[in-house]
Each structure stands twice: as C-alpha cells, then as structure tokens.
C-alpha cells in the first residue's frame, strides 16, 4: 500500500510539473513596475479608437526611432522603439479590477480618453469612476476604473524588441512623449 501511495504521489508530481509557467517572450511576463503586477497579458493591436486625432507635429515622427525610458512591461525600459503612431489626447493613470478576476491593477499607465465609455469633450477628473473600453490588456474592457491622474499629451504606439529578448512587440499602447528619448 505504501509503495502504491508513493508511486501515485510521484506520478501526480510529474504530471503537475508540466502545468507550470511556460516561457513566452512576447511581453507576457511579470512586469518591472506596479502598474501591471499580476496582470501582464498585453493584447497588441493596430486598431486605434474612433475619434482619436493624429498629432499635428509630434516630437517623434511615425517611422522614426526612439528609446523607451519607462518599463510598463518587462524588457521595455531601454528598448529601441519604432514609432508606429502618434496621437493627441488625454492619457490617464488609473486603477481597475479586471473583468476576468484577480487582483486589482494599481497605477496602470496608460488609458486614453477615447478608450473610456461616455467620454465627452472634457477630461475626466482625479477620483472619478469610469468604465473602460480599452482592450489592450486582458480583462480591461468593461472594467470599472478610478482615475488617478490625467495628462494632455501626445501618445504613441510603438514596436519594440524587449531588452530581455524574444519577439518584437507590435503596436504597444501607449507610450507618452515624456517616456521616450532620442535613440
């Protein structure tokens, strides 16, 4: 009986060891900052929200290169980015609980004005509760969020290869002008 129990225990441990994390080098890893801790399923898309205005004279032109100075996702900080899009809008830092469950995401950078339900002409204020239309992270679309800060700025979509290695991340949303520098 003890031998059967020991063999069964070993078999279960072997089976469960195959259920661990698998390596995925497409920006789906544990993040470098609290803005995405425990919630790192980036969903890249070239789609931009309806009504989003292209920036008239962005510091970083579409097609140019820049260096990313902030680490929203693993391997972002210090990565060379190709500018895929440049838009004028209000960018928000906010906290929300994913619709897929799990821990509340604190200090998420960035959701833009056009990615919030019933966004009128005026920017949302600190402390306001909103419903997200953004879907660039799993569990974001439809989530209730609280605005922590707002910044009128140029936001960029960027393509970059993580400094940690792996495949190129395409159309990462969003990086603000202050988070980029000349290459």
TrEMBL record:
Domain of life: Bacteria
Annotated signal peptide: 1-20
Biased segments, Basic and acidic residues type: 21-44
Pfam families: DUF1541
Protein keywords: Signal
Membrane spanning stretches: none
InterPro entries noted in UniProt: DUF1541
Region (Disordered): 20-58
Ranges for domain DUF1541: 62-113, 126-177
Designated name of the protein: YdhK family protein
Annotated source species: Tumebacillus lacus
């Amino acid at each position: 009986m003890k031998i059967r129990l020991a063999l069964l225990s070993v078999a279960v441990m072997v089976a469960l060891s195959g259920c661990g994390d698998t390596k995925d080098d497409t920006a789906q890893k544990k993040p470098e900052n609290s803005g995405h801790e425990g919630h790192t399923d980036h969903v890249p898309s070239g789609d931009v929200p309806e009504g989003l205005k292209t920036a008239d004279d962005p510091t970083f032109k579409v097609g140019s290169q820049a260096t990313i100075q902030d680490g929203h996702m693993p391997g972002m900080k210090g990565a060379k980015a190709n500018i895929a899009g440049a838009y004028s809008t209000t960018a928000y830092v906010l906290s929300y609980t994913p619709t897929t469950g799990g821990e509340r995401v604190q200090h998420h950078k960035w959701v833009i004005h056009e990615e919030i339900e019933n966004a009128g002409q005026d920017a949302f204020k600190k402390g306001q509760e909103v419903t997200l239309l953004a879907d660039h992270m799993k569990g974001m679309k439809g989530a209730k969020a609280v605005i922590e800060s707002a910044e009128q700025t140029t936001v960029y979509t960027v393509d970059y290869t993580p400094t940690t290695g792996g495949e190129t991340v395409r159309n990462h949303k969003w990086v603000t002008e202050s988070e980029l520098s000349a290459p």
